[in-house]
Structure formats: C-alpha cells, structure tokens
Write a structure and sequence with these properties.
Blueprint (H helix, E strand, L loop, with lengths): L8 H9 L5 H19 L2 E4 L1 H16 L11 E5 L26 H8 L3 E6 L33 H8 L5 E6 L5 H7 L2 E4 L19 E6 L2 H11 L29 E5 L9 H16 L3 E5 L7 H16 L18 H12 L2 H14 L4 H22 L5 E5 L15 H5 L6 H6 L3 E9 L2 E8 L5 H14 L7
Parallel strand pairs: 2-3, 2-4, 7-8, 7-9
Antiparallel strand pairs: 1-3, 4-6, 5-6, 5-10, 9-11, 10-11
Helix pairs in contact: 2-3, 9-11, 9-12
C-alpha cells in the first residue's frame, strides 16, 4: 500500500509511468484522505470527486495506450476558491457569491488542466482574501493541522492545510500582502509568492489589483518549480504581464549556493518577534552560512511604514473591486427589498463579512475628496521608497532572509476582535508585496510544537534564485508532518 500523501510530483510521475499504481488508485487515495480529515480541518468548500475520477480514468487510458505522460499529468491539486473554474462553484469564500458557477477557467487553472493535473476541489479562505487567519470566511473556518485550536493562517489557509496534510499534492493560492507565505509558515509547507506579473491573474477574483499575485503551495520547492514552469509567462488576457522569458526552473536545483550573498534586514528582527521564531530563523541563517553563503547585514529603513501604507492602498483598491457585488449580477439577491437602493444595501450587508465591509469603508474614505492626497497619494510615495530599499539591498546581496510571521499560529478568535493586531501578522510579508518582489516561505523548525517559516526574498523575476536557496536549505533540513 502506497503512502501517496508524501509523494512528490516526480515520484507520482515515475510511479504512473512505470504502472506501479494507477491514476484512479492515486486520486481515490487523496479523495479518501479529504473525506477522513476535512471534517475536522475544514480545508475545502467544494470537492469535485466525480470530475476527478473522470480525469484519472482518462490518464490511465492514455498510459494503457502506451503514450507518454507529462510531469503534472494525473497529479491531484486543489485551488483557493478565488480561482474561476468552469462548471464548478466559485465563491471567493463569501456568501455573496454562493452558487456562482463560472463559464470559464482562470488562465493558471486552464494551463494546469492542459498539463493534466487533476482538480480535487476548492479551498476555504478569508472572504475575497481579506484576512490573515482564514477566520473571515462565509464557510467553516480551517484549522491548523498541528493544533486544531489554532488558525491555519490566511487568506490561503485552506490551501496550506490541504497541502500540509496530504489532501493535495499542491495548491494554488493568492498572495496580496502575505496570504500564501504566512499560512505556509504557520502550517509547515512551502509557499511561493512570485514577482507581480510573473503569473496571469486572468480569471482570479480581484481583491487589490496592484498587489494580487497568484502563488503556489507545495511540500517542496522542487514541486513548486514544476508548477511555476507550467503556469508562468505572458497571457494576452492579462495586460499586467511583461514580456519576460520563463526560465527552466527545474534546472536551478543543479546549482550551488556557495558564494551567494544573503542579506539579513535588521528591521525584521526587532520588537514584536517571538523569541522562538527568532531562534529558528537565526538557526536557519547559520545553516545557509554553513552551505557556503556569505551573510551580510542590510537595512530596509522604510519597512516600518509598510503596514500603514498597505492598509491605505489595499482597502482603496478593495473599495473599487467590491463595487461589482451588488446582489444583481452574482449570487443571492435581497428579495425583500422595496427598491433598487435597498437591494444593494441589504444584499451587501448580508453577503459581505464585517472585515470586507470595514475595508470598503476605509478605502472609500481614503479616496474621497479632500483625503486622497493626505492618505492614498502619500501611501503610494511610501510604496516607492519601500521598493527603492529593496533595489538598493539587491545591489549588495543576492537574496534576503527574514521571518515570515512574527509569531507561530495563534489561537482561533485571539485576534479576530482586534483588526490592528491581525494586520500586524503580515508585518514581515507586506514589504515584498508592496515592491512586487518574489518571496518564498520554507519551514525552518518548530517553536512550542508549531511550525516556523523562513522567508527568502529575491529581486524582481528572481524566482529561480530564491528557489535555488530554498532547495539547498530543504536538502539540509527536512520538514516534519503533522500526525
């Protein structure tokens, strides 16, 4: 009996090609795991078992005909419920979109399907991506697999849980201010936020359009490289993607990190960082040094303004993007309304989570006459300074190493009534998002029985660089899995 829940993409490919097991057997094992675990972990909103079985049978038929299969063919995956999926409900974690079935696939999803990956279902998340704990959802709150009384992180919390526990080989999430890296760190898997513009966002429900980035969660950087190679690159349906060549990401794992320079930003190791997290990250940096990397202290002086700038820019874009959800075009409508204005008011009040409503109000205020220059314009100027900090640092070093989250996974409900405390959960991930830089979270140990993540940040379109470092670290330190 195979323990498929620990298999890498390469292992699955070799096993299917050699006919050591069938794709139907593989997919059924993953679906059985979803059935057994998800009742207590709440990683999925929708499970697509029938379609998964159909795709698995098609892969087995192809193998039986003697045809070669691609690396991702037959590999079970899941998707954060922000990705439009043809014929499958897509809710963005919100009741205001419950029942919405898109007539098309997001570009990233279409590319994965073309490569033969098998969709198992759609993952739970913070509503429209608004949150750092996945508690702001219209559905069941996902729970940390190491301690179910704690959060999974957010907003891609369900995806991180699914990957960490072997309910999917990999998952797509989205990262606006840390929403792939932070749940990956809190659950104990690998999470990549690529450069803004590296992966098409067409068909991904928008939260903050200048920040939203499609990310990948998996159990290793090598699995992430396979998925990234498949979905990265230009898309005529997304004008924000520059014409930048997609390298062979799998080739980077043959490279050595010896002689590479790693910068340690002093601003990421100050007040608010838990002692246990600090120790694990410092140990990880010493490991990188033992692998031949040159450690250098650097400064990113405008980091301290990152959270404040983000929570002006992000809600401002949210206020525009959420305007389309009016109870008319999508989801349930307030049928008890007396006029059109009341339809809007009641549909949005009932359909949107309080956190979504909060961000809409903040953003509308920041963009209003008399406040635009004082808030939004100033935040954009700070964003430019944050980006310049990174560019100057990458003139001295190849990558940066820092914590992902200031704490390990916190208790469910601990920060849900304190928005500012929740916002500070992203204090170390927001700067790279503001600057559009790629960053990856890699498990680097445990603190109080909970995972800690090491964040490796690179220059724009430097995904191959940070994945090289992540892989070298993973080869030295193996990630434990929750029982």
């Amino acid at each position: 009996m195979h323990n498929f829940s620990t298999f890498s993409i390469q292992q699955i490919h070799k096993g299917l090609s050699a006919k050591r097991f069938s794709c139907v057997e593989l997919v059924e094992a993953y679906l059985q795991r979803v059935h057994e675990l998800d009742s207590k972990l709440n990683a999925f909103i929708t499970v697509t078992a029938e379609d998964a079985h159909e795709k698995a049978r098609a892969v087995d038929a192809k193998i039986a005909r003697g045809e070669q299969i691609g690396l991702l063919e037959g590999v079970p995956m899941s998707l954060k419920d922000l990705f439009c999926t043809k014929g499958v409900q897509t809710t963005a974690g919100s009741k205001i979109l419950e029942g919405f079935v898109p007539p098309y696939d997001a570009t990233s999803v279409a590319r994965l399907k073309s490569a033969g990956a098998v969709l198992l279902g759609k993952n739970t998340e913070d509503e429209f991506g608004h949150g750092a704990s996945s508690e702001n959802t219209g559905f069941s709150v996902p729970r940390n697999p190491w301690d179910t009384s704690r959060v999974a992180g957010g907003s891609s919390g369900g995806s991180a849980v699914a990957v960490t526990t072997g309910m999917a080989v990999f998952a797509l999430g989205t990262d606006t201010g840390g929403s792939v890296r932070q749940p990956a760190a809190l659950c104990g898997c690998v999470g990549l936020k690529p450069t803004y513009g590296r992966i098409s966002r067409y068909g991904v429900i928008a939260m903050a359009s200048s920040l939203d980035t499609v990310g990948i969660l998996a159990r290793s950087s090598q699995d992430i490289a396979v998925v990234l190679s498949t979905i990265a690159g230009k898309d005529p349906l997304d004008s924000t993607l520059p014409d930048v060549a997609v390298p062979d990401y799998l080739a980077v794992f043959k490279k050595s990190v010896r002689g590479m320079k790693v910068g340690i930003p002093e601003e990421y190791f100050g007040e608010g960082l838990e002692d246990g997290v600090r120790k694990r990250v410092e140990e990880a940096v010493r490991t990188l040094e033992s692998l031949g990397m040159i450690v250098k202290q650097v400064s990113l002086p405008h980091t301290k303004y990152g959270v404040a700038a983000y929570y002006i820019i992000c809600p401002s874009e949210v206020s525009a993007n959420m305007a389309r959800y009016d109870g008319i075009k999508y989801g349930p409508t307030a049928n008890d309304a007396r006029d059109l204005s009341e339809v809007y008011f009641r549909s949005r009040s009932r359909g949107f989570h309080p956190e979504v409503q909060r961000r809409i109000m903040i953003g509308t205020y920041a963009l209003s006459t008399g406040y635009y220059d004082a808030y939004y314009l100033k935040a954009q100027k700070i964003r430019t300074l944050v980006k310049q900090d990174f560019e100057e640092a990458f003139g001295e070093v190849d990558v940066l190493a820092a914590p992902v989250s200031p704490t390990v996974a916190f208790q469910l409900g601990e920060k849900s009534q304190d928005p500012l405390a929740m916002y500070m959960s992203d204090v170390f991930t927001i700067p790279a998002s503001l600057a559009g830089m790629p960053a990856v979270s890699v498990p680097c140990g445990m603190s109080d029985g909970l995972p800690v993540g090491l964040q490796i940040i690179g220059p724009q379109f430097g995904e191959e660089r940070i994945l090289t470092v992540a892989n070298a670290f993973e080869n030295f330190w193996k990630t434990p899995t929750p029982s």
